[in-house]
Amino acid sequence: MKMPLKIFLVGLIILIAVLMFNTFSLKSTASAVSNTIDIPRDDTAALHLSEAIQIKTVSFGDTLPIDTSEFVKFRMFMEKTYPLMHTKLEKQTFNQFSYVFKWTGKDSTKAPFVLMAHMDVVPVEAIAESKWTYPSFSGKIEKDTIWGRGAVDDKSSAIAIMEATEQMLSNNFTPERTFYLCFGHDEEIAGKRGANIISQWFKEKDIKPAFVLDEGGMIDTERFKDVQRPVAVIATGEKGFVNVDISVTIPGGHSSQPERETAIDVLNKAIVNVRQKQMPSIITAPVQSLLEKTAAEQSFFKRMAIANMWLFGNMIVGSMEENKQTNAMIHTTLVPTIVKAGIKDNVIPSIASATFNSRILPGQTSDDVVNFVKSAINDERVTVKKQTISLMEASSSTPSDHPSFQMLESITQKIVPNVLVSPYLLIGATDSRYFRPFSNAVLNFTPMQNPKGFHGIDERIGVTDLSRMISFYKLVLSEK
Ligand SMILES: [Zn+2]
Known about the structure:
The protein is α+β, with helices and mostly antiparallel strands. 37% of the residues lie in helices and 21% in strands. The chain contains 15 helices and 17 strands. Strand 1 and strand 2 form a beta hairpin. The longest helix has 23 residues, at 3-25. The radius of gyration is 25 Å and the shape is globular. Residues 118, 153-154, 187, 215 line the site of zinc ion.
């Protein structure tokens, strides 16, 4: 045998050995089928959620006023429905409509836990109302399903936390450690008056939670088609948020004799240029874990690809870029959401502007976003400026070997048979982001299965889901 061929063959054997070693090192996580508990169906809680949905606690927009009478109604609903929570726990009110209930535990030396949910909902567009199966704020209960805005996002979590608390209080239960139950009233408009102020109060009082649990992750049996088990995704990190304004000023004039390029033309080109490219992809730690955990359940070739990212990384990134959700997990996204120009049909406007909404991956910053936009546009006539008012840089992630993650994993295994639990990255934003800067154990999860219609048409949740969520929060409240 000639030398070069020999070297080639030895190299090939080493390559195959490395590929196989990595592939077989990806092991499936054992399930805990035998440990699952019985979950009683809670029809009373379903009625309570129905009632909560009928109260229109809508956050219309950042600068638009809320209907305070609805938020007062919601407060009265809480007081009437959960009397023990109001008499036995310490209640604190923030900006009129956000609340924190402190449930003092037996052991004051242990750092407290925080359970969060928000009470506000997004509006229903007038044009969409007729498309709903039942009126959007009806709270209609049909067999196993509760319908209406907020059924998923996030009144079910709020109700489940309150139900669990009330039921445990009626059994004279006292938790081992102190719990803070936090209910914000403006999550859908960035939580500045609710969760933000609550988190500042935590900082002022020097309360350092050992664990913060908020909405976000869920149980999925639809999207991970090749995994033959329900997948519970628990978010360990969250993307950042920034708006970037671009504007072009070019003197306008009469539309009967236009210049070759107007402000609108330059703005259009700029938008197209930004949209044609993407910022560099990053596989963050939570996404890497999600890939590995789910790959271990899949075909040999998928396992081999994910176990050998050094070789197949580009291929995996390419396939993730084909789907908008998985693309958002590996890229900082940028999309124009507001475009403004023009006041009259025969006047060429002198100014045209647009706002890009960007969701920033951990590992990139709002300055990176601005620099990317500038270089993609590459035109000095376009001014690029980031908004600072709603800016939130991407947070660091909670490590998946953190005790709080393991705690949620084992609780989830108790309530979902044969479940595969995995970390993931939340691509939306939640109230819990205000806690991330000072707690290294913020997780986002509620055990609802394949929730439908949130922020859209026919939002609804199963009574079985709500019942499972109540059992879930009871287990969290029972943690030592
Ligand atoms: Zn929400």
